[in-house]
């Protein structure tokens, strides 16, 4: 399982679906314990659901997933890989050792991952194409508001998107990919249906952090690149959002994100080491109110909480890494939640 965004949620969801089907499964790699350790302890019937990063894929030799998943490829970690082309080449190494009898689940709505569906299928790997806009067989797709999986003549309805507890357009895609992967690994349709309904948001990924003064606070600290923030905003289409952006600058292009924020009427508060560069992008590309710049996340949260009105959402979705102020994104998310819990709970406006 790999992709620029959505890896952890989809990995955890696949494990949840398999366990719900009575197939022993454990999430490993970037999420959970090391895959090599679990492999030495697991029984022959167990399934390891591995979240693998571009860093790990760059170094693989014999790694061969029986079911692979590629969610998306958008610019990230260019500071480590040296170029977007090298980053993409390392990501798609998830397919490198697959052969006939294996399955690849590929989101074909994503411009980065779509081109690989044909080349992987040409190697006799069965490809399940995932889409929210088009029906593919074999594949998983959205039919109106119903999640569907199709591997033969008749499509199989799963659940309505309103029954998912994970929100946003990207999580509909993640749920489709997870359902396809679990089905390919042997999970029954009924267990997939029930598992999709019972899966809950993971910490630091559009995680509800509390309500204060009628304002909802959401912890999306894992959104460490601009594309992840764009996806997060789709979860709040009908709400006014104040997004907290900033942290350690990985060299990403903030232009598309800034333009989308401006077009949506979303407010932003900037913080941390990357704040001056993001502010310069706002000054160059966006129109609207002045975007405030703060030193720390705590200051950004206080400013956003003071400006928010009942019904608004204050969203920590930083588009940056955390290493300027925090140990990692998890540390950042926990501090955010602690600060939210300390806010006054009754409306003051």
Question: What fraction strand?
Answer: 15-25%
- What does the largest sheet look like? 6 strands, mixed
**What order do the SSEs take from the amino end to the carboxyl end, as H and E?**
HEHEHEHHEHEEEEHHEEHEHEHEHEH
First-to-last CA distance: 46 Å
CATH architecture label name of the largest domain: 3-Layer(aba) Sandwich
The neighbouring-strand order within the major sheet is 3-4-5-6-7-8
| CATH C-level name of the largest domain | Alpha Beta
Indicate the percent of residues in helices: 25-40%
Radius of gyration from the alpha-carbon trace, in angstroms: 20 Å
Give the count of helical stretches.
13
Number of strands: 14
For the record, what is the CATH homologous superfamily label of the largest domain? Mur-like, catalytic domain
- Mean pLDDT across the residues is 92
Do you know the CATH topology of the largest domain?
A: UDP-N-acetylmuramoyl-L-alanine:D-glutamate ligase
**Outline, from the CA principal axes?**
globular
Q: Which blocks of ≥5 consecutive residues have pLDDT under 50?
A: none
How many domain modules? 2
Structural class: alpha/beta
Descriptive notes:
The protein is α/β, with parallel strands linked by helices. It has two domains: 7-198, UDP-N-acetylmuramoyl-L-alanine:D-glutamate ligase (3-Layer(aba) Sandwich); 207-341, Protein-Tyrosine Phosphatase, Chain A, CATH 3.90.190.20. Helices cover 35% and strands 19% of the residues. The protein contains 13 helices and 14 strands. The strands form three sheets. Strands 3-4-5-6-7-8 form a six-stranded mixed beta sheet. A six-stranded mixed beta sheet has the order 9-10-14-11-12-13, with helices on both faces. Strands 1-2 form a two-stranded parallel sheet. 49% of the residues are buried.
């Amino acid at each position: 399982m790999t992709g620029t965004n959505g890896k952890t949620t989809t990995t955890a969801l696949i494990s949840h679906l398999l366990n719900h089907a009575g197939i022993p499964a454990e999430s490993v790699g970037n999420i959970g314990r090391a895959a090599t350790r679990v492999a030495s302890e697991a029984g022959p019937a167990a399934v390891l659901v591995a979240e693998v990063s571009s860093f790990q894929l760059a170094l693989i030799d014999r790694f061969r997933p029986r079911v692979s998943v590629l969610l998306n490829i958008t610019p990230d970690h260019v500071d480590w890989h040296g170029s977007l082309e090298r980053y993409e080449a390392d990501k798609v190494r998830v397919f490198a050792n697959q052969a006939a009898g294996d399955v690849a689940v590929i989101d074909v709505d994503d411009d980065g991952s779509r081109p690989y569906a044909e080349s992987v299928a040409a190697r006799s790997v069965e490809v399940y194409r995932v889409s929210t806009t088009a029906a593919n067989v074999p594949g998983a797709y959205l039919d109106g508001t119903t999640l569907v999986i199709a591997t033969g003549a008749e499509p199989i309805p799963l659940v309505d998107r309103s029954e998912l507890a994970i929100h946003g357009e990207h999580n509909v895609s993640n749920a489709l990919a997870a359902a396809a992967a679990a089905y390919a690994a042997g999970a029954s349709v009924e267990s997939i249906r029930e598992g999709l309904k019972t899966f809950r948001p993971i910490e630091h990924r559009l995680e509800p952090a509390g309500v204060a003064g009628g304002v909802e606070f959401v912890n999306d600290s894992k959104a460490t690149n601009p594309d992840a923030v764009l996806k997060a905003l789709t979860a709040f289409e009908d709400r006014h959002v104040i997004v907290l952006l900033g942290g350690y600058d990985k060299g990403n292009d903030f232009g598309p994100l800034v333009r989308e924020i401006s077009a949506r009427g979303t407010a932003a508060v900037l913080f941390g080491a990357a704040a001056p560069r993001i502010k310069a992008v706002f000054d160059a590309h966006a129109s609207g109110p002045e975007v405030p710049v703060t030193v720390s996340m705590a200051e950004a949260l206080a400013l956003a909480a003071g400006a928010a009105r009942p019904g608004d959402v204050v969203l920590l979705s930083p588009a940056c890494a955390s290493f300027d102020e925090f140990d990692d994104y998890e540390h950042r998310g926990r501090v955010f939640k602690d600060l939210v819990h300390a806010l006054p709970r009754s409306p003051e406006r």
